[in-house]
Structures are given as C-alpha cells and as structure tokens.
Amino acid sequence: MNRAQKAALGSAGIGLVVLALKFGAYWVTGSLALYSDALESIINVVAAGAAFIALRVASKPADGGHPYGHHKAEYFSAVIEGVMIVLAAILILVKAYDGILAPRALEMPLLGLVVNAVATAINLGWALTLLRWGRAWRSPALAADGRHVMTDVWSSGGVLIGVALVAVTGWLILDPILAAIVAVNILWSGWVMIRDSVSSLMDASAPPEILDQIAKIIATHSEGAQEAHDVRTRQVGSVIFIDFHLVVQGTMSVTESHAICDRIELALRQAIEGARVTIHVEPEEKAKHKGVPVLLAS
C-alpha cells in the first residue's frame, strides 16, 4: 500500500469521526443547516472510499491490455465524487424547501455549535494536509478529496455563524435558508470537480510551468541536434507523458543520435517526477524551423 492509498484510508477514518460529530450536532439541535452539513460528511466518507479504490487501481503496473498504465483511474474517482456532491446538494435543497414551508425551533443550539465547531476544526486540518499531499504527489484523487473537505469547512463555517444568528435572533427561517445556501455552494464545488476531471480524462496538457521547464531542459541538453519540434504532453495522475521530434544531421549515426536522446530523457526524468519520454528522431530535411531551439553540434 503506497502513501496515497494510506492517505485515502486516513481520510475515510477521519470522515467517520467528523460524520459522527456533525450528526450529533444535528440530533441535539434539529437544525436543517447542521443537517446539511452532516449530510455532506457522508459524501466525504464514501468519496474517500472511492478514492482509495481508484488509487489501488492506478498503482497497478502497465500490462498487455493497458500498456500506458492505469493512472486515469484517479480521475474516475474524482468524477464520481463530483456527482455524489451534486446529489447531496439536491437532497439538501429538498430538505431546505420543506424547512422554509414549516420552520422549526432549535433545541440546545449552544451544544450543537460546540460539537460542530470541533468537527470543523478537524476537517480544516485534514483538508490542508490532503491539498498539500495532492500537490506534492500529483494525485488527482487526493487533491479532489482535499478540495471537497475544504468546501465542507467553508460550508461549516457559514453554518456555525447562521445557526448562532438563529439562536440569538429567533429568526427560524434563517435555518432552512442557510441550508439552501450551503447546498448551492456544494453544487458549485461538485460541478468544478466534474469539469476538471473530465478535462484530464480528455488528455489535457501539463500545466504551463511544467511546459516551460520541459522546453528549457530540451534546449540545454540537446547539444548535437538541430531542432526539437511538435513537443506534446499529457498529464495522467502523477505521470506526465512527453513526446517530441528531434532533428539531427542526416549523416549522424544511430548510436550518436541515440546518445542525444538518452541525455535528454535522463534530464527530463530527473527534473520531472513521473516523466515518460518518447523521442522521434528525424533527419535535417524534416526540420520545421520552429519549436524548441537547441544547441547545434560543434
């Protein structure tokens, strides 16, 4: 079990603790806003389980049926999580509508607020941890889970303020209205997650800063070549596929051109974790006179 899988399991465990606390807050108060907050925590737990399964699949090595590996499994997890978030938002909106039609008084609001605040603090610490790991390990599943938990933190913060206002002012209608606002926020979060994951499933290129880094590495490690063009990338989870055409003198031997390719590949793999490099060597008449400028042979 790798570190990302352990993090996903940890997310499920923490999600269960937070879920218990939030439903406890809802149970003692009867607040629809706290109910909406607790319902999202159910999604957190299920989504963490989906992320764990996706990470297990993504870690499998390439095989005959999947020669490029199983890395895209992480994006399916993120899409599933996004869909579940949208469904949770719809359920909350239905509950909020009923509450607007028939507002109800809160019971023991102070106790409920304290319990929910503890759960929110736990979520905040875990969300920041997941986001940091997701970026460092280039894991879409962990990053999506971190964004989801952080959305829960913001929602919980708004809920805490709103429920406190209900308790102080006695305006019962605020409770279902606040639940509806939380639902809209959750709905937007789910849409963004689905959109970004589908983009990656469509073989989106690496981020601009990575593209710049790739171009600089090719330019500084291609001595002996004449030109590099048609540089393409696609990022799949923690792996970045890089391919391009390298133009060399037509009289250069296979051994010499292969040595240049080896030098470039080694530099790319050392600088960019998870790089998978494919280079197509071409003779000088195939030059396009554009792309990445390289050092000419001396």
Automatic annotation (TrEMBL):
Localisation: Cell membrane
Transmembrane residue ranges: 7-28, 34-55, 75-97, 109-131, 152-171, 177-194
InterPro entries: Cation_efflux (IPR002524), Cation_efflux_CTD (IPR027470), Cation_efflux_CTD_sf (IPR036837), Cation_efflux_TM (IPR058533), Cation_efflux_TMD_sf (IPR027469), CDF_Transporter (IPR050291)
GO biological process: intracellular zinc ion homeostasis
Pfam family, one: Cation_efflux
Superkingdom field: Bacteria
Membrane topology: Multi-pass membrane protein
Domain spans labelled Cation efflux protein transmembrane: 14-202
The keyword Thylakoid appears for this protein: no
Residues forming coiled coils: none
Single annotated GO MF: ferrous iron transmembrane transporter activity
UniProt entry keywords in alphabetical sequence: Cell membrane, Membrane, Transmembrane, Transmembrane helix, Transport
Domain Cation efflux protein cytoplasmic: 207-284
GO cellular component: plasma membrane
Family that this chain belongs to: Belongs to the cation diffusion facilitator (CDF) transporter (TC 2.A.4) family.
PANTHER family for this protein: MITOCHONDRIAL METAL TRANSPORTER 1-RELATED
Protein name: Protein p34
Species of origin: Labrys okinawensis
